[in-house]
Design brief:
167 residues
């Protein structure tokens, strides 16, 4: 139990490890399970990647307290953003079948034909692909991602608001 407590008190390890671990897990399911990610899933991966980047930057020795707090703040923001995206996907998955939006064109086509802000708007509104889920272990992918985003938000907020020891 003491080892678990020490690990949980290492924000760089938790942020970087969870972020990278969840992205690798998603790619394993994509490659070996043949689950194609929807655009909202891809945005969630980006959020986990940015949280992992914040954790990796926290590893740098000798960072000023202000920079550490800024990285905790950014990781919290990325957690909120990812949680909103996962929440939107959960909402789409729980809509009645007659209210699910129609499927949008593939992401590559959107990127080639539309301006970037319209691509973002189209992706965030979701489509019929985002309302489907094929895998479930108590929760589906979006629900698990939402739980991890909530955990990472609370975790980073704790370290953001934690008073630093007097030197």
């Amino acid at each position: 139990m003491n080892i678990l407590r020490k690990i949980l008190l290492l924000p760089p390890l938790v942020n970087c490890g969870l972020g990278i671990g969840l992205i690798v897990g998603a790619y394993i399911f994509e490659i070996f399970g043949y689950y194609d990610p929807c655009p909202l899933c891809i945005l969630q991966r980006w959020s986990f990647g940015l949280i992992a980047l914040c954790g990796a930057l926290l590893i740098i020795p000798g960072l000023f307290l202000v920079l550490k707090k800024a990285l905790f703040f950014l990781a919290s923001l990325f957690s909120i953003g990812g949680g909103v995206i996962a929440g939107r996907q959960i909402y789409l998955q729980n809509l009645p079948s007659d209210q699910v939006p129609t499927c949008a064109p593939p992401m590559d086509f959107l990127m080639d034909t539309l301006p970037i802000f319209e691509v973002i708007q189209t992706v965030l509104l979701g489509d019929g692909n985002c309302a489907e889920y094929e895998w479930r272990l108590i929760f589906n992918f979006a629900e698990w991602a939402f739980i991890f985003f909530i955990f990472l938000f609370c975790y980073n907020l704790y370290f953001l608001l934690k008073k630093s020891p007097k030197i």
